[in-house]
From TrEMBL:
GO molecular function: 5'-3' DNA helicase activity; ATP binding; ATP hydrolysis activity; DNA binding
Compositional bias annotation for Acidic residues: 1-12, 21-36
Boundaries of every SF4 helicase domain copy: 262-527
Disordered: region residues: 1-84
ATP-binding is among the record's keywords: yes
Function comment: The main replicative DNA helicase, it participates in initiation and elongation during chromosome replication. Travels ahead of the DNA replisome, separating dsDNA into templates for DNA synthesis. A processive ATP-dependent 5'-3' DNA helicase it has DNA-dependent ATPase activity.
Xref: Gene3D superfamilies: DNAb Helicase, Chain A (1.10.860.10), P-loop containing nucleotide triphosphate hydrolases (3.40.50.300)
Protein name, per record: Replicative DNA helicase
Organism, scientific name: Bifidobacterium parmae
Broadest EC class assigned to this enzyme: isomerase
Residue stretches of biased makeup (Basic and acidic residues): 51-63
Length: 534
């Protein structure tokens, strides 16, 4: 049977899906490579011309050139059915225009998508120059804490004189229209990143081939070394170095100590409590700090005290994820703690006198630029928390995360047991602290173990639902108030038991508990010398 002519009629590939237009040349997408010897001769079909027994599938992985014994399978979506030459340098590098458009469309629809995608891909991962330009504009707006949508990105591109180069406002709106939801943006970003890796492989391989052809026999060893360097250079962009020689590491540690002595670097995120800060030198970046206690013992109050000290008193960006209380309840506690107006009075209009109104207005005026953020979204997943923290790290230089509380988090997945689920949360929060280089304070419930003891004091083993919490945590604070069980036993006092301290000694700190204004407070400096301390 005579070979049929190639189909060169262009068609619209708008429904091509997300299969990359691989293995073609001449600036067009698609095609099917038939072997030169005719062993598997056939014809290339575009999406519109595919025969009924070989249905066209836009996202099929079979769409790649085959140069061996053709089996008649594998159609690549594209604008034409132009044949593909099996030559190393004549092919368009792997890319997926539809996936790139979907990524940008998702970013224009959701700020959360921007935070997630920006951690996965870089501007050079996009193949089309206009997509690189649009991505840069989105990231610039996002980094400046500006809202992002098609209109604002168009305005940003107009300022830089690049709007027409990317196809104008209509093209930006078409990006949004190309995806029904931003939920899959990370999936599309992974496709874009994988295509970028393949292009880097091809570039490195091409350069290595050129080195091999141009080298003399005596230079073979040098060519091997250069080839290895090319491969490592290709991979270094996305692979972090996970080891280092001890010499430079020790040098960095001594350098940090020297800077601490000279007051050139901060000691850590201050907790607001004198004795705790003296021992810990503040909450350190990368640490997971657990504050645990029985219900109504004051663990939420202590967590909010940490947040107030960092954000309101030291101007360090802090976010509180409250899965237990609403934003209004948290705001009332913060107002009460900062103004010394009883929490109960803030819920009774007749107790707010003109003098108290003046105090409240004065406090409000100080909060205009306070970097304290509160999120009380219900059923918050770990992915949401991670995305929001990453965004705040990029836009506001996040310094502290407080989560209230661990056992209220849900994964939305089927798990074997609740203990396993809490273990996953614990490990993920520790990794989040290391990734963002901020301390993460996770509040946690204790089981009924303390109730069974005569002294009612909690222990590390009382952490509820998972032993992984005590394993992953760098610091564990256990909140204990003797007067909770016996009103005559040290009323108004609290023991903050440091049950674990990975980088130093443990200790028990004695604080005053002011329940009326919802806060803890340092005891007088001579308190421990009176024989009450440990």
């Amino acid at each position: 049977m005579a070979e049929e002519p190639w189909n060169d009629e262009p068609h619209d590939d708008g429904d091509a899906g997300f299969a990359p237009p691989e293995e073609d040349f001449g600036g067009v997408d698609g095609g099917f490579d038939e072997p030169a010897d005719g062993a598997g001769a056939g014809r290339a079909y575009d999406g519109a011309d595919a025969p009924a027994d070989r249905p066209y599938r836009g996202g099929d992985r079979g769409g790649r050139a085959r140069g061996g014994r053709g089996n008649g399978r594998g159609y690549v979506p594209g604008a034409t059915g132009t044949p593909v030459r099996d030559a190393l340098f004549d092919r368009v590098p792997p890319h997926d225009d539809d996936a790139e458009m979907a990524v940008l469309g998702g970013m224009l629809m959701s700020k959360d998508a921007i935070g997630e995608v920006s951690q996965m891909i870089e501007v050079t991962d996009f193949y089309q120059p206009k997509h690189q330009t649009i991505y840069e504009a989105i990231i610039n707006l996002f980094s400046a804490s500006q809202p992002v949508d098609a209109v604002l990105v168009a305005n940003e591109l107009l300022k830089s004189g690049e709007l027409e180069k990317v196809g104008g406002t209509d093209y930006l709106h078409s990006l949004v229209a190309s995806v029904p939801t931003a939920a899959n943006a990370t999936y599309y970003a992974e496709i874009v990143h994988q295509r970028a890796i393949l292009r880097n492989v091809i570039a490195a391989g091409t350069k290595i081939a050129q080195l091999g052809y141009s080298a003399e026999g005596s230079q073979a060893e040098d060519v091997v070394n250069l080839a290895q360097a090319e491969v490592y250079e290709m991979s270094v962009g996305k692979v972090r170095q996970d080891y280092a020689a001890i010499g430079p590491v020790v040098h960095d540690a001594l350098d940090q100590l020297d800077k601490l002595q000279q007051g050139l670097v901060n000691k850590g995120v201050p907790t607001g409590f004198r004795d705790i800060d003296d021992l810990t030198q503040g909450l350190q970046p990368g640490q997971m700090v657990v504050v645990a206690g029985r219900p109504a013992m004051g663990k939420s109050t202590l967590g909010i005290d940490f947040a107030r000290a960092a954000a309101l008193h030291h101007h360090m960006t802090t976010i509180v994820f409250s899965l237990e209380m609403s934003k209004v309840e948290l705001a009332q506690r913060i107002i009460s703690a900062e103004t010394n107006i009883p929490l109960g009075a803030l819920r009774r209009a007749d107790e707010i006198t003109p003098e108290r109104w003046n105090t409240l207005n004065g406090f409000w005026s100080k909060l205009d630029d306070a970097p304290l953020f509160i999120d009380d979204s219900p059923n918050m997943s770990l992915m949401e928390i991670r995305a929001k923290c990453r965004r705040l790290k990029q836009t506001n230089d996040l310094k502290l995360v407080v989560i209230d509380y661990l056992q209220l988090m849900t994964s939305g997945k089927q798990v074997e047991s609740r203990q396993q689920e809490v273990s996953e949360f614990s490990r993920a929060l520790k990794l989040l602290a290391k990734e963002l280089e901020v301390p993460v304070v996770a509040l946690s419930q204790l089981n009924r173990g303390p109730e069974m003891r005569n002294d009612k004091k909690p222990q590390l083993s009382d952490l509820r639902e998972s032993g992984s919490i005590e394993q992953d945590a760098d610091v564990v604070f256990l909140v204990h108030r003797p007067d909770f069980y016996d009103k005559e036993d040290r009323p108004g006092e609290a023991d903050i038991i440091m049950a674990k301290h990975r980088n130093g000694p443990t200790e028990t700190f004695h604080l005053a508990f002011l329940g009326a204004t919802s806060k803890f407070k340092d005891m007088p400096q001579d308190y421990n010398s009176g024989g009450q301390g440990v």
